[in-house]
Amino acid sequence: MTMMHRFLSSLLALGAISVSTLPFAAPFSLPSNNVRHHASKPHHSARRRGMPITSLGSAAPPDADQSSGDNIPPAVESASARVDNCKRDLIQQCDDHELGSKYDSSIENKIREMEQLGEDAGFGQASSLSGLMSGEWELIYASDDITRSSPFFWAFRRAFPDASDQIFEITDMIPAPIKMVGPATQTIDIDSAARPVTGTLVSRVKVATLGGVATSIMTTRCDVLNADGLDGLRLKVESTKPEDSTILQKLGPLGEFLNSSVPPFPSGEALEKVVPGSSEVGMRTTYCDEGLRVTRNEDRLKDDVFVWKRVKFGSGNMVSL
Description:
Structural class: alpha+beta
Distance between the termini: 53 Å
């Protein structure tokens, strides 16, 4: 039996243990952009000095008249307004777009516009060091299947470059209501002041099968190894586990015991046995402020684009630039 067959058998065994009919190979992924790096502006640290924060994340002096803009340089105010308006339009387009219906050219164009405006004005930059990555985020746009937002499937693609697309196509073709995916969230905790930058990322994607009769949360846990430039993070996939299975919950105390006691599948270790180094992936965040984040899979910068909306802030430390 080939190494690939043994690994896929392990994935199937994981599904059996979870008593879930989830097609485990349902894909996850994101790309990173050609981003020119800028130093973070002072507004990133202003929130921690108790200064009011605008919707862009820029800070105004406590006594500033926000309506008149007397204390804000016209050029800064104009740049701030352009980024803010673009971000508002992007969120509206994402809300109007059904999550899971994949690529949308108008949204992708708006993403590129916001990235460029943010870069020109210095907003949303230096995501690896700003401290703003930490927190809980909800996916509002994915250029591919929702499951590709998980770093596990970026790593899976690296381990099986020739077979992954075929596997993903099979699972993607399973129609609703047999398979329904979403919502997807990520919880990030980064110490940006540490050297190297360290932390954790936990990806959770809800997958329902058989019209919602069986649901589970596919949870992938990653370690942050270090920062890669001002907007990149190196992640190492550690484990994957279907959590909160409704099938197990119906078993009462026994189901709760199984759900809590079954260990996570060491997906990172399994991937390493197939292709050494495949469990490590690059996450490039081309825009990140107090409310919105655009992240790409470094291996597929132009193909996998994900827009995340903040649910809550984390406790990650920041570094002054």
